[in-house]
Amino acid sequence: MQTHFSLEQLADPRLAVSEAILRKCVHCGFCTATCPTFTLLGDELDSPRGRIYLIKEMLENGRPADSETVKHIDRCLSCLSCMTTCPSGVNYMHLVDEARVRIEETYKRPLADRALRALLGFVLPYPERFRLALRGAALAAPLAPLLAKFGQTGDRLNAMLRLAPRFLPKRTDFPQASVSPAQKPIARVAILAGCAQKVLRPAINDAAIRLLTRLGVEIVQPPEEGCCGALVHHLGQEHEALAQARHNIDVWTAEIDKGGLDAILITASGCGTVIKDYGFMLRLDEAYAAKAAKISALAKDVTEFLGGLKLPAPLAAQKPALAYHSACSMQHGQKITSLPKELLKAAGFEVRDVPEGHLCCGSAGTYNILQPKIAEQLRARKIENILKTAPDGIATGNIGCMTQIGAGAGVPVLHTVEWLDYAYGGPKPAEI
After folding, report:
1. Domain that holds residue 122
2. In this structure, are 258 and 193 located in the same domain?
3. Of 189, 209, 238, 391, which residue has the fewest beta carbons closer than 10 angstroms?
4. pLDDT for the residue 173
5. Both 301 and 206 in a single domain?
6. Is 2 domain-assigned?
């Protein structure tokens, strides 16, 4: 793509990166074939190629974001399917992230939109606030039919109530503290406790800790650890995102200095994609650039780490047939595609591929709240494709997908590591 940035503009290192990304795009259109919003809406501006033109126009002319640009960028799920498809290596993730920051800096959203986004950024990254909000949502659920009168704002509030569980699971069996399994551990790792996942399904990390400690891995959970920053990062709230990233970098660096870490394990693939990008996000911060790059290099999805261990023979009990839903942040963001399925197969499960597996389920962080109509269409399409495989259960690697799919699937939806823990001697999940 031809660009016309001035030398003065290119002196800004953020714009220089965006310009380099834009120049890689050759307008081929392969991205449109795998973009969920273009598949549903058929609008060129709701495809990666169309959004790239809008971003180029905004950045190149140095102008504030307008309502048309905001509408189509907001509709992007950041599923990154386009990056898997692109033959030219266009880093759409970094480009759309920069566009979201520019939008938040230069565009004044309607008051209701600003208020909801501020609320999401204030509540979701903080487990105790989120837990309190979910209790309030359960009480407010009977009011959902009344919200239809309030247009888009009502739709969004209705989506929040619909997604909120009626009952919260009990707090984790493993409080945030060091967990030491064997006298001679084979590795020492930190595990991200997370924010939303910690409230919605603490059983995921419980299963990971049980499985890993049985395999001889020492696990550290620093109590100071917080949200990875992904939620506010995708809202364009970059100041908050970088502050949360720096905080965790300091916490994990202290653990490295204390006893060394062989890996930092993440059980929510949406978090993993962002943590692996800390090195890029903080590249201009002299105090954190090197530390951030080191943390990104240590970050691994839990299945990546398990793939490097010698696993025992699974128990002989009959295993369910599983549909594997590959979260977008797993397959497109981290490029982890076959490994989780291979681990499940080795554990004795029959694993069935889901048709249109490259398409997003519509969760995408806060997308299913901010864009509920599109998210609901994608959810229905995903569940329909999953059920075509006639599974006994569903495996996936991201809490957002589990929440989005779970209510309508009619079969148990568990994290991959929960299925693996069960297969290798852990307790039977209550959902089975």
Report:
1. 111-163
2. yes
3. 238
4. 64
5. yes
6. no
**What does the pLDDT average to over 280-300?**
97
C-beta atoms surrounding 420 within 10 Å: 26
The whole model's pTM is what?
0.94
CA pair distance 340, 204, nearest whole angstrom: 15
396: tokens are 């996936």
Q: What is the CATH number for 226?
A: 3.40.50
Query: Which of 106, 122, 147 lies at the terminal end of a domain, its last residue?
Result: 106
How far, in Å, CA of 334 to CA of 328, rounded?
9
> What pLDDT, on the 0 to 100 scale, is given for residue 115?
94
3-state helix, strand, coil split of the chain in percent (to 5) is 55, 5, 35
Q: Are 362 and 376 in contact (CB under 8 A)?
A: yes
The mean pLDDT value for 71-94 works out to 97
Mean pLDDT within 321-329: 97
Tens of pLDDT along 406-418?
Answer: 978 899 999 999 9
Predicted confidence (pLDDT) per residue in 207-227, tens digit: 999 999 999 999 999 989 999
Residue 175's pLDDT is 59
Q: Is 151 left (phi over 0), alpha (psi -120 to 50) or beta?
A: left
Q: Which residue has the tokens 């973009």?
A: 35
**Does 178 or 320 have the greater pLDDT score?**
320
264-301: string of b/e by CB count within 10 Å (b at 16+)? Answer: bbbbbbbbbbbbbbbbbbbeeeeebbebbbbbbebbbb
Token pair for 208? 């990971």
Number of domains in the chain: 4
Q: What angle do CA 177, 402, 404 make, to 5 degrees?
A: 130
